[in-house]
UniProtKB/TrEMBL annotation:
UniProt-listed InterPro entries: Metal_Hydrolase, TatD-like, UCP005295
Family, as annotated: Belongs to the metallo-dependent hydrolases superfamily.
UniProt entry tagged with the keyword Membrane: no
This protein's UniProt keywords: Hydrolase, Metal-binding
Gene3D superfamilies given in the database record: Metal-dependent hydrolases
Lineage: Bacteria, Bacillati, Actinomycetota, Actinomycetes, Micromonosporales
The protein's name: TatD DNase family protein
């Protein structure tokens, strides 16, 4: 089994997680820029963070044979903080980088006017840089937030086939499918979506334009839930080809639209990155 996790925050995971993921069949990941939990106070902290997820994290992943790509954006939550708004001016520098395969995460957290502006501005950047967009749907009032997201996506003029609407559930999946965007689902231990519910959605709607991710971060999450979902699919009558489509070929198809997806092999030949290694105390 081969797995491509299209949304996972490896900055908040350990090297042990990388080892477990590789053993479970994870061969590629995409790490979206997101809120780190602690509010950032100036654009410079974003510069260091963006540099990390396009530099250090690909190196760290490569030590375990995993290909790492990133998406770059000002996330919805911090779009409300005036101290962070200048980050929008930094984005063109990073959206031109190799290994950046989409603009994201963008979208809504609380559906404020500031979030409206940041969302529209970053969809425009996706168009300018010929990149797909990864859109975060809000955890509160999800149905209204999903519809509002779809309205903004339509107004932007971006091809809906170049957008994934993430963190969907049974209430919102039909609207996403009707709009022609890709449907993203985050499998969590207690919230968002479970492997069993995901199997039921796949049975009802089919495997086309579906991305299944773990979205694992610093909260209660599990980077192996993509593999658990694959096992649940097989146990419930889906074929190995269905699993490969959902867990590998679909994310490859979506992110390949960036023209920057590189799955040609491990980049783990170098023992260090910027003078650092994953070994404490050196080799």
């Amino acid at each position: 089994m081969r797995i491509f996790d299209p949304h996972i925050h490896m900055t908040s995971r350990t090297t042990d997680d990388y080892a477990r993921m590789a053993e479970a069949g994870v061969q590629a990941v995409v790490e979206p820029a997101f809120w780190l939990g602690q509010p950032r106070t100036n654009p410079g902290s974003f510069t260091d963070y963006f540099d990390s997820i396009i530099g250090w994290e690909p190196f760290r992943a490569s030590q375990f044979g995993i290909r790492h790509h990133a998406t770059i954006a000002l996330n919805p939550k911090e779009a409300n903080d005036p101290r962070c708004r200048p980050v929008l001016d930094l984005l063109p520098r990073y959206l031109a980088k190799d290994g950046v395969v989409a603009v994201g995460e963008i979208g809504y957290d609380s559906m404020t006017p500031a979030e409206d502006e940041a969302f529209a501005a970053q969809l425009a950047l996706a168009l300018d840089h010929d990149l797909p967009a990864l859109v975060h749907t809000p955890h509160r009032d999800k149905a209204r937030g999903t519809q509002r997201s779809l309205d903004v996506i339509k107004e932007s003029g971006i091809d809906p086939g170049r957008v994934v609407l993430d963190h969907l559930n049974e209430v919102t999946v039909a609207a996403a499918r009707d709009a022609g965007v890709w449907a993203g689902f985050s499998i969590y231990p207690d919230t968002k979506m479970s492997p069993e519910r995901m199997v039921a959605i796949l049975r009802e709607y089919g495997p086309e334009r579906v991305l299944v991710n773990s979205a694992a971060d610093w909260g209660k999450s599990d980077p192996l839930l993509t593999a658990v979902t694959a096992a649940k699919m097989l146990a419930n009558g889906f074929s190995e080809d269905d699993v490969d489509r959902v867990l590998w070929r679909n994310p490859v198809e979506f992110y390949a639209q960036s023209g920057r997806l590189d799955l040609s092999g491990s980049a783990g030949d170098s023992p260090t990155f910027a003078g650092n290694s994953i070994l404490r105390g050196g080799s």
